[in-house]
Write a structure and sequence with these properties.
Length: about 230
């Protein structure tokens, strides 16, 4: 058995300096509970006085080595090969995903390339120009007389004509309007057939032009396509 040296010096109440062969440490606490800081780390101890029962545990982070595993631990050959295979699989998966993304982008570009192109004509589009369409006239028939408007126009023209005559040129317009109303029946009896005749002449001209345009349209028949046998 070898000799051991130790000495405890009180620095402050509850704080003591411990001197021993292993080094210098500080301890603080009360009876039954102490904390010791020395070269080996920080320890805490607690016990029940008079029973001999006590408990001691390291309090600094080095006592919980499982929270900070060493990154420099050596791997076995099997673990190293498994790690390499996993890295290879990850690289292949990245390459496959990149290939899929490139192909999808090319597919989208192809779709957008074809969208602006004109639609390919169908067989019906080719045959439609060879089929004669029904005749459609662009000319409009003459409008029929609106008799209430024609009556009003005739009365206004008659009133203006009366105003230019003596003595209505010097009188208020009311006198000319009254005189025009008295003359209107006889004037309208002549004006109405003239309006109707002008409309009939315009309608006859329209029907003649329509007939000629339709005959010209029917004369322009589509030519038979080569090889049709017609």
């Amino acid at each position: 058995m070898g000799f051991r040296f130790s000495r405890r010096v009180s620095i402050l109440p509850g704080l003591k300096l411990n001197l021993s062969g292993s080094g210098v440490s500080l301890s603080a606490g009360v009876r039954g509970a102490h904390i010791n800081l020395g070269p080996r780390g920080l320890y805490g101890s607690a016990g029940i006085p008079g029973t001999g029962l006590s408990y001691r545990q390291r309090l600094d982070s080095s006592s919980r080595s499982y929270d900070h595993p060493s990154v420099e631990r050596r791997l076995s050959t099997r673990q190293w090969e498994a790690l390499q295979r996993r890295q290879e699989h990850e690289e292949k998966a990245k390459e496959a995903q990149q290939t899929i993304d490139d192909q999808w982008e090319q597919y989208q570009q192809m779709l957008h390339f074809w969208k602006p192109l004109p639609e390919i004509p169908s067989l019906e589009n080719f045959l439609q120009p060879q089929t004669q369409r029904p005749f459609e006239s662009t000319q409009q028939p003459p409008p029929e007389p609106v008799w209430p408007e024609e009556v009003t126009k005739c009365l206004n023209d008659l009133t203006e004509s009366v105003k230019t005559q003596e003595p209505y040129r010097l009188l208020p317009s009311l006198f000319a309007e009254r005189h025009a109303k008295t003359l209107f029946p006889s004037v309208w009896q002549e004006r109405q057939p003239e309006i109707q005749q002008r409309y009939q002449v315009s309608l006859a001209d329209y029907e003649q032009q329509l007939k000629e345009a339709q005959a010209e349209w029917e004369a322009r028949k589509p030519s038979a396509s080569p090889g049709s046998g017609v």
